[in-house]
Amino acid sequence: MRRTMLSGVALVALCAGLAQGQTDSMASHRMQPTAMGAGKPSSVNSPDPRSYGPEVSKAYEQVRHATAPFRDLKVAIASGYSASVPNCLSDPVAGAMGYHHINRANLVKEVEVEKPQILLFERRANGDYALNGVEYIVPYRLWPADSTPPRVMGRELVRADGLQLWYMHMWVWKRNKSGLFANYNPDAECRTPPAPVPTPGQ
């Protein structure tokens, strides 16, 4: 199976401190900007969940239903997801992953479709902080790297040796022409929050 690599930005934004035993050498790793995971060659890059069969189609609806309340970040925070993320992960060619808000209570060996470990947000041009998708991860400390890959919705998670974990993205709230399970979305962007407007006298 192809190894994936993560940049230093990913290390901070995605999973800093997640897996035990991480070292500074991981900062040289970087994710490939292609679609990942098992699937038929004809559908691997499709944004349409129906292209991947009934199990994925059903899971897609389940994830949307489960995460709909989290489109409001305050609700996501109240449910255990991190309140703030310092960096937004992007690629100059492939697009963005976004800000990764993690819920450590969901870090379990057996992944549940309706309990993603990470929510993927972006800051849009109008200033809105919008939920784009989810990411499933399983640290190697829970599921060793030399084991058969963990699965969710019938698909294998992918190894990220640099971060010592398995992962899979799913773009359930923003269409991704690179594929439903692609790492990056060419239509997503990393924007910083708007600068505060100075008050009179400043």
Identify the notable features of this structure and list them briefly.
single chain, 202 residues, alpha+beta, six-stranded antiparallel β-sheet, two-stranded antiparallel ribbon, 3 helices, 8 strands, 13% helix, globular, disordered N terminus
Secondary-structure map with pairings?
Layout: H1 8-13, H2 54-67, H3 73-78, E1 89-91, E2 95-102, E3 118-123, E4 129-139, E5 151-152, E6 155-156, E7 158-160, E8 165-170
Antiparallel strand pairs: 1-2, 2-3, 3-4, 4-8, 5-6, 7-8
How would you sum up this structure, described in words?
There is one protein chain. The protein is α+β, with helices and mostly antiparallel strands and 202 residues long. It contains three helices and eight strands, in the order αααββββββββ. The protein has helices at 8-13, 54-67, 73-78; strands at 89-91, 95-102, 118-123, 129-139, 151-152, 155-156, 158-160, 165-170. It has a six-stranded antiparallel sheet with strand order 1-2-3-4-8-7. A two-stranded antiparallel ribbon has the order 5-6. A hairpin with a 5-residue loop joins strand 3 (118-123) and strand 4. The model is unreliable at 1-30 and 34-43 (pLDDT under 50).
- Using only C-alpha atoms, the radius of gyration works out to 17 Å
Q: List segments where confidence is low: pLDDT < 50 over at least 5 consecutive residues.
A: 1-30, 34-43
The biggest sheet amounts to: 6 strands, antiparallel
Query: Strands across the major sheet, in which order?
Result: 1-2-3-4-8-7
Cα(first) to Cα(last) distance is: 57 Å
The DSSP helix count reads 3
State the shape: globular
**Structural class by secondary-structure content:** alpha+beta
SSE order, one letter for each helix or strand = HHHEEEEEEEE
**Which bin fits the share of residues in helices?**
10-25%
In total, the number of strands is 8
Provide the β-strand percentage band.
Answer: 15-25%
Mean pLDDT: 82
